[in-house]
Amino acid sequence: MSRPLAVTALTALLFAAVPAVAEAKNYKGRSSQGRVVTLRTGADGIINKASVGWRAPCGGKIVFTSRTGWRPPFDSATPDAFMDQGTYRVNAGDGERGRITSTFVGQRDPATDRWSGTLAVKVMVTKRGKVIDTCELKRLRWNAR
Predict the structure, then answer these.
(1) Fewer C-beta neighbours within 10 Å, C or N terminus of the chain?
(2) Are strands 130-144 and 114-127 parallel, antiparallel or unpaired?
(3) What pLDDT digit, counting tens, does each position of 90-137 carry?
């Protein structure tokens, strides 16, 4: 085998053995409430940012409306699935505070490169340290592509 042909064959073999590098990607979609859902993956294909708008019914005719964002570390995350649970607090205005507990789950369909999942939210609304209402969103479905 001639030297140039051997170098070309060796180079082709090396490039075939190196896996392709994924690119960071943005996904956008809607929830079952019609709210915007955004996801971003890193070059490794793992979710590194997510955001979902939601509304949770409370007692009476009151609805707690918010938008929750997530960033790593997630409780679990792979290029095809993630899950995160946690609690945070927000100032709801007029001296009211919301203690929001959420469970955010998603999975990617590799055939279509689309994400889908669910969001569950519980909100405890307090004023001057006393619980004045509770709100719950049992299962919000979402998808993004």
Answers:
(1) N
(2) antiparallel
(3) 998 999 999 999 999 999 999 999 999 999 999 999 999 999 999 999
What are the boundaries of each domain within the chain?
Answer: 22-144
Residues belonging to the chain: 145
14-44 pLDDT, tens digit per residue, is 444 444 456 899 999 999 999 999 999 999 9
The pTM for the full model equals 0.82
> How many angstroms separate the Cα of 105 from the Cα of each of 13, 20, 63?
40, 27, 23
Half-sphere exposure of 113 (CA within 13 A, CB side): 9
Contacts of 32 (CB under 8 A, 6+ apart): 140, 141, 142
136 Cβ contact partners less than 8 Å away, ≥ 6 residues apart: 56, 57, 121, 122, 123
Distance between CA atoms of residues 31 and 139, nearest Å: 10
DSSP letter, residue 8: H
Query: HEC string of 83-138?
Result: EEEEEEEEEEECCEEEEEEEEEEEEEECCCCEEEEEEEEEEEEEECCEEEEEEEEE
